[in-house]
Amino acid sequence: MTAAALAHKLRGLPVRIELVESEEIGTVGVGEATLPLIRKFNEALNIDEATFMKETEATFKLGIEFCDWGRPGDRYIHPFGDYGRPVDNIPFYQAWLRLRQLGETARLDDYSYPIIAAEMGRFQRPGGDPDAIQAGFGYAYQFDSSRYAQFLRRYAEASGVIRTEGKVATTVCDPETGFVRSLVLDNGKTAMAELFVDCSGFRGVLIEQTLKTGYDDWSNWLPCNRAIAVPCESRGPLMPFTRATAREAGWQWRIPLQHRVGNGHVYCSSFISDDEATTQLLGHLEGPALASPRQLFFTTGRRRKFWNRNVVAIGLAAGFLEPLESTSIHLIQEGITELLQLFPDTGFHSADADEYNERMGLAFERVRDFLLLHYVANQRDDGELWLHFQNLALPASLEEKISAWMTRGHIIKYEFGTFLPPSWLAVLLGQNLIPRGYDPRTLKIPEDRLRAESRRLREAVLAAAQRTPDHAAFLRQVGGASHQAPLTAGVG
Ligand SMILES: Cc1cc2nc3c(=O)[nH]c(=O)nc-3n(C[C@H](O)[C@H](O)[C@H](O)COP(=O)(O)OP(=O)(O)OC[C@H]3O[C@@H](n4cnc5c(N)ncnc54)[C@H](O)[C@@H]3O)c2cc1C
């Protein structure tokens, strides 16, 4: 992603980009669910959506379904879009909170077009009349990340990136400044550069092994540290959403692609053995496994500096936050965007690095808080992992956010940050944190009017979802279906 984007965006400048990569090491091979900003990335690179979807076996994604997170049996969808429409400039959910206290039973979900369309297995792109209920939502993709990497490699090479095969064996640094000057590969080749982007994954070959930048370990807040991943055959209709189901010592993902379903169990090794985690995962597959389960190890946290001297770490080399809200590829994009905005000249002004580090630090912290909310807002009592969160000291930023919410449903807005208020709302309400009050301005609106407007909205959402095509049919219609894909399989 980084090489492709830099090649495209820096075209015309005297910049030469060389990508050093090792086939033998390979890529991490997981990472299939994304956030809506990925569309901007592809658009900025003039990538045609249908071609990309066909090549990567991609499906459309309207949000994430969370099962059993608040209490066993609960379920909610975190949609890529807002709920309802503001009433007299007051967010709609405030009117819903008031009506709820007056006995109204409709779910807030019933006012969200992406949720209702997702529940029905339907999809179409946002658009049409800008005032229509289905005009203003976001969508993302679920794709085969290895194929996406290959797709972008072809794109990057066609855009002038030189790819050098080989394993970095040693790094040569300037003895005075500590700047990295060149890489020596195990095949004897040398790669020299002025700026190095470390995309070497968890190893952090330059940012950590060479520069010893240090890592802030966030395991106390997010203790899951392992995952088992396995693809399986799909059963049932192709749903336009990712699913995350809470388990006794972690959670399980289900990501529907065109040709298979990606599954994984993210867990904390202090509370469950690897064998038991694998057994639980295999016991919950909807169809036969298509490969042997693969284990991954990680420590949640972030590099102390993302940009250190002339090295910028992007991707897993920069840090890792578990994939509960599909944020890693998104953070890669943010890293690339910030790097382009602050692209250095050979002088390397420390203010640029400072600004980059500050912005990316904030991006990581805000994602951390949002992920932590899912664990903290649990009422489960079926495992030590869940009990761990009951008396946990929270980061002040999250403490503040939850307390503002619990009084009158106020969601503190951030100037930067991946997740906007509707996302926080989805998780807070979805996991049973119901505020004591609501925005008093809703009292100015007569109850009859509130009831009538909310009924109209519910009906409009349902009617729009019913008019929306089936997800698999839409994928075929827009030319995004790969030839061999069955798209829907009979229920086994
Ligand atoms: C369990 C799990 C689930 C995930 N799920 C999601 C998800 O649903 N959504 C999401 O957005 N993200 C997810 N991620 C994160 C996502 O997989 C990564 O962000 C993404 O794949 C990018 O990885 P990367 O390029 O940083 O690292 P890698 O894929 O590990 O690539 C590292 C590259 O560096 C090269 N390399 C390493 N060392 C050397 C060396 N010494 N010499 C030469 N080359 C070297 C390798 O060959 C490889 O090409 C998940 C991660 C994990 C662990």
TrEMBL record:
Residues involved in FAD binding: 168, 316, 329
Positions of the catalytic residues: 61
TM stretches of this protein: none
InterPro entries: FAD/NAD-bd_sf, Flavin-dep_Halogenase_NPB, Flavin_halogenase, Trp_halogen
Annotated binding of 7-chloro-L-tryptophan, by residue: 61
Cited Gene3D superfamilies: FAD/NAD(P)-binding domain (3.50.50.60)
Sorted UniProt keywords: FAD, Flavoprotein, Nucleotide-binding
Short name of one Pfam family: Trp_halogenase
Key word Ion transport present: no
Source organism (scientific name): Asticcacaulis benevestitus DSM 16100 = ATCC BAA-896
Residues given in the record as L-tryptophan binding sites: 325
Protein name: Tryptophan halogenase
Gene Ontology molecular function, alphabetical: monooxygenase activity; nucleotide binding
